[in-house]
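Review box. Two proteins, two foldings.
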Amino acid sequence: MSLEAILVLMIPIVAIIGIVLIVAMRTLANIIRPNNKPYGRTRQENLDETQLIQEMYRGLQRMEERVEALETILMDIDRRNRDRHNGE
């Protein structure tokens, strides 16, 4: 039997083994945590985490706006200083 023939036969075998492993892992996961419940988290904990992430995002947006405002102020100061030095 040539190497190509062996490889052609191995591809379906590997695919079948892979499918069997996936089914076995999903079955085991359903046994360990039935009803698709998240790992040890309640609905309230998920809501709290979501709210925390949203607050962090809003805080980062406000910080970005403040940084942009500070950049504008610094650029204005720098421009005024250059104008003052060029006028002397």
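Next protein.
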Amino acid sequence: MSPARSKSAARSQRGTRDHDGNAARAAAIFREVGMPFPLAVTLVEAAERRAGSGRWAEAEALLTEARPILEELRAEPWLRRAAEAGRQASVV
């Protein structure tokens, strides 16, 4: 791998870690203050990102937490989005 590609890959990995950390912090805050909808949205978006990068088990764990919240809130568009992310995560 060329030095430029190595640097690009390192930046990409760092960006993924930053995003993961930010999503985890946001989810923790939403849990703490009792904001279920933003929590579920954060979980679905984080799951989509993980599924898109091949981190299937992590994506499914996030969706497992998000689905019941979305079902209780009857957030149909977000349930559909979670279902699509789940399909991505299950296609290995």
